[in-house]
Amino acid sequence: MRARGRAWVFGDDINTDYIISAARKQSVRDLSEAARYLMEDVRPGFGSLVRPGDLIVAGQNFGCGSSREAAPVVIKLAGVAGVVAASFARIFYRNAINVGLPLLEAAPEGIADGDEVEVDFAAGTVRNLTRGGVIHGRPLPAFMRRILMAGGLVEYFTRHGQYPDPMVEGEETP
Questions:
Q1: Do residues 18 and 42 touch, judged by C-beta distance below 8 A?
Q2: Considering only CA atoms, which of 64, 10, 12 is closest in space to residue 39?
Q3: Does an H or E element contain 70, and which?
């Protein structure tokens, strides 16, 4: 599973309120509509600039703060193909996998806003197509890739009638 698109670079400690503010979450009931307010507190207008297939690149502790599942849902609804970060808050990480948003833990050194990157979530690599170079990160375990390929945990469970077995490695088809 791969994604290729423009990189949007953010710093450390991007919390769930920065991803989608509590005020917007309360005032906008349709999360598809809320996607236009994605990251508005740290980068005004981002929700209208990001295009389907683009990738968010960030530093340490992406998704920290409250455990709102709406945060990864809004990123996905904005069309973002995945998030690469040096590290993720654990609850955000699990929520993202459960809603079908691909993640990769990798130190995103040398990637700038607007660079075209290709992320291989299975191999754990980020190829910077603009500047050259490859960054190696921690690939997603096979059972998480199976959840992502199904579109999220609910879709996986609906399709298979059970949760994926984390001990079964190597199977790519959900």
A1: yes
A2: 10
A3: helix 70-77
> Is the whole-model pTM more than 0.85?
yes
State pLDDT tens for residues 55-84: 999 999 999 998 888 999 999 999 999 999
Measured torsion, CA atoms of residues 16, 48, 150, 59, in degrees rounded to the nearest 10: -40
Please say if the pLDDT value at position 101 is more than 90.
yes
Q: How far is CA 14 from CA 21, 41, 80, 160, 162, in A?
A: 12, 10, 16, 34, 33
Q: Would you call 135 helix, strand, or coil by DSSP?
A: strand
What does the DSSP 8-state code read for residue 161?
S
Helix, coil or strand: residue 74 = helix
Q: How confident is the model at residue 173 (pLDDT cuts 50, 70, 90)?
A: very low
Q: How far apart are CA 171 and CA 150, in angstroms?
A: 13
Residue 95, CA atoms < 13 Å, CB-side half-sphere = 21
Whether the per-residue pLDDT at 17 is higher than 90: the answer is yes
**Per-residue pLDDT at 150 exceeds 90:** yes
Q: Of 119, 113, 63, whose CA–CA distance to 88 is shortest? A: 63
Please report which helix (H) or strand (E) contains residue 98, including its range. helix 90-99
